[in-house]
Fold these 2 entries.
Entry 1:
Amino acid sequence: MERKLLLPIGSVGLLVCLLVAQFPVPSTADVNGGTTCAGCTIILSLVDQVAEMNNESAVDALTRLCGYLPDQFQTACKGFLDFATPILLDLILEKYNADVACHALTLCYVDPGQQACLLYPNQQQIRSGGIRAVLKSLYQSKEISKQTKQIMMGKGVGLKSDICDSLPGLKGLCEWLEGHINNHTAVSDIDQDKFGITETLRGSHWRGKDCDDFDKTVYPGRRPKNNDEETDSDCNGIYGVNPATGKTFEEDYCANSDHRGVLLLSDSAGAHFHIPGEWMTASKLSADVFKHVLMVVEDEFDWPELSGTTGYMNTTWDIVHGLTDSLYYKLVQRNRCNHRDFQNIGVNGARAEKINTIAHSMSRDPNTDHPAIVMYSLIGNDVCNGHPDTIAHMTTPEQMKAYSLSSLKYLDTRLPKGSFVIVTGMADGRVLYELMANRIHPLGQYNQDITYKHVYDLLSCLQVSPCNGWMSSNETLRNYTSERAANLSKALEEVVQSNKFMNFKPYYIDYDIRTVIKEWEDMGGEGWQMVEPIDGFHPSQDANYMTAKHVWKQLETTYPEIIGKVNPNNDAIYKQFGDQGGY
Ligand SMILES: *[C@@H]1O[C@H](CO)[C@@H](O)[C@H](O)[C@H]1NC(C)=O
Ligand SMILES: *[C@@H]1O[C@H](CO)[C@@H](O)[C@H](O)[C@H]1NC(C)=O
Ligand SMILES: *[C@@H]1O[C@H](CO)[C@@H](O)[C@H](O)[C@H]1NC(C)=O
Ligand SMILES: *[C@@H]1O[C@H](CO)[C@@H](O)[C@H](O)[C@H]1NC(C)=O
Ligand SMILES: *[C@@H]1O[C@H](CO)[C@@H](O)[C@H](O)[C@H]1NC(C)=O
Ligand SMILES: *[C@@H]1O[C@H](CO)[C@@H](O)[C@H](O)[C@H]1NC(C)=O
């Protein structure tokens, strides 16, 4: 009995655990079922809508949805289907909604001293503590089956323990993923030089692709060995001897060309966290939109290859909308010798304290490598958390100074002479609530009933919000959070201005999201398009694109020494080496 119940929970747990392991919540408490409850509510809300759309039963709708998922997720989805079937057959979803159904499934519950957490608005009776009464009358009604009653009793379901621990198979997989992902280094990296050859799992989506994974002295960003007379040791695609001059192409085209790599130390915004809006829009669900789920999971729900700092390609997938531009991409256009010299060390949930350890996964040898431009960019997590007493968990300006100085000192030991470190300030996250709160969330599109405010409130209630301070209906709290963010930005600016470093020059620039939004609106765009459609929190693809342009312009006009000169040999390089080995 116990195992039978555990299995399906574990299966839906796998999906949730993967999502949660990656969800950029820096620090949360997690009550009333937390992320499991949120996951259940989202899934059953979609099932309800799909059933209505297709005039079919909830069981048929969930079966249809499972069919859309790739093979690797079939067992998990069917496990959840089996588990939920009695509740679905008893029409609890039809008669009530996903909130009640998930409470009946005991994936959502009410912890002592807590209020029930609900997604759907206008449930006054339930909201005022009446969910227990609803469940009780449901339990006592003759219309529900014995199986449903058993589920509602929650027999044998260890919900409060870590879901990753509830199943042997699941535990192994979770540990494997967490072990690799927590190292923030390429998983397939035979020569252990921190650059890999696969795209995902911290591979070439994150750091320039290794052009020889059997030789640890060959990797992007190094100064070329023997000027790459015979082979390419810096992976920029330029090597060999120029018959016209008798010198190597590296000497002819790249010597003294102001070669610089781009290194990003950042959070989920820098890594470009994105959950496709299609995944939670009932009318858009199809096998097609879920084709790439596995890759998305392997990249921790981040899209560094499309990001505003290290992006290098336009996507052809229709689950991302907008073009790519980035600091790295512009630097390559400026000097093709910089090809593949980028590292995105963005980690979901990272804040200043954590960056001190995360920074150790970067790769730069002060003796053998080219100088780098490091972006130190933490735009929110130091004031963002899911705790109800959110203010007590914010970083203080004194802490910010200590943490960031410690990171800069570490960088000074790792960067080649002549490098640059650009520290950005934090965002004014009040724009989120201003732009999004009253808009319809993808989950509410079909019935025009769920807004971002409802989603923010559900996450806050479950204490899994990525940012209670800004995703709150309390304007005083939102203002306070922005004031703290401004204080932390000031602390960062002071650290930059009052310290000298041996190997790099530090700079401070604001993270001016309001100006970027204004520039987007001036181009005919709408402000809300700058925010991620599902989480209502992260900068969108368009925002990454606009931020790249904004930052570049600032560097060009104010700090041209950082970006170096234009390489006059760019055309010659293109003519000789084409796409330089691509990515
Ligand atoms: C929905 O399906 C039921 C039976 O399955 C049928 O009686 C009803 O007419 C259908 N409604 C619509 C709008 O197609
Ligand atoms: C993570 O890194 C540590 C230290 O570099 C290493 O010992 C460990 O094996 C790595 N773990 C994985 C899963 O690669
Ligand atoms: C993406 O496409 C746009 C428009 O075609 C182009 O200008 C831009 O250079 C492309 N970006 C990348 C990273 O290839
Ligand atoms: C929040 O800040 C804005 C802008 O500074 C101000 O206009 C508004 O009155 C403040 N709201 C509250 C509740 O303090
Ligand atoms: C709003 O937030 C402020 C600052 O945290 C707090 O003092 C106040 O009690 C909150 N107001 C409400 C209505 O919760
Ligand atoms: C910001 O700093 C000012 C000046 O030190 C201080 O008075 C204020 O309380 C700080 N605000 C927050 C929200 O931390």
Entry 2:
Amino acid sequence: MRDFDAASLALPGIRQLQPYQAGKPIEELERELGITDIVKLASNENPLGVSPMVQKALAEKVTALARYPDANGFYLKTALAEKYHVHVKQITLGNGSNDVLELLARTYVSAQNEVIFSQHAFVVYPLITKAIGATPVAIPAVDYGHDLNAMLAAINERTRMIFIANPNNPTGTFIASDALHKFLAAVPQHVLVVLDEAYYEYVEDQDRAPSIAWIETFPNLVVSRTFSKAYGLAGLRAGYAVSHPAVADLMNRIRQPFNMNELALTAAITALQDDDFLQRSVALNREGMAQLVAFCKQQGLNYIPSYGNFLTIEVGDNAAELYEQLLHKGVIVRPVAGYELPRHLRVSIGLQVENQAFIDAMVAIANGE
Ligand SMILES: *Cc1c(COP(=O)(O)O)cnc(C)c1O
């Protein structure tokens, strides 16, 4: 192909970006190493798969795919509004919650603004910020978690958005409800606080913040959630934001008209009805977390106590090498050096046998096998 200096024509913010690095797909490892029986514990997916009730609803919907989906997602928004006791006008649907995070940034953040998030925070926050050409402000973590006081101190008149993941990925750290409430009360109104609760369903009832109810008091608060994790629909891309209706109205002006597809809408509506599947998913996660924590304790490995569906383990200076060795044993985990955690690996909680496969591989590698 002829030479073409595409980069010099592109936006400066985009030129300096590194693409998002997803967990290695099972098929890719199969191709590369010619092995089967691979266990993927790399993308915080639901190890129970897709709820049978959702599978049935999806199968029935296939024949309707010649038509465009409902651009306003009426039935899903209605179901979410009922579940969370909010108005339908407060909900924005997205092609995954990453879509709504991007919509928020594109609605509110300009190249002149600053965006605050924590060190070790979800990589999508700096990615979106830099794409716009805005200034990312990463606040050093405390015990791998958010330093809310330092985040408050970093706010100035150019600050327009703060991203907080609670629980955070990839650390699994969690901010208690009262600390979060105090923080929100101290954030000035010219700053939107985006509270990313992708792992909300895994948090024990007594620990959960009534974050959506807080929007009444804090109109600059936006809560995002997803069907990718506990609801087991990562492959479909379904997420949403709950906000002040005026915020939702603005986001609605720039979103792609059919940003949530027909199958995703159907699956999400049905998933909300399958409480049994959700409960089983959360219970399985609790057991798997205990299994991995027990392994770490037994091996004397440090780990970051996690409120999510993954555990980030300090494996030492050879984390990158260990990741490769695990691949050769058919176990995919997630390196997190890109999150300034070069000594850690993040392991998603799987089925009991999948967690055991990881444990067995770790023991074998430690024994030089
Ligand atoms: C997995 C995850 C999401 C969800 O992304 P989707 O686009 O909904 O799949 C959002 N935020 C964080 C912090 C996550 O870890």
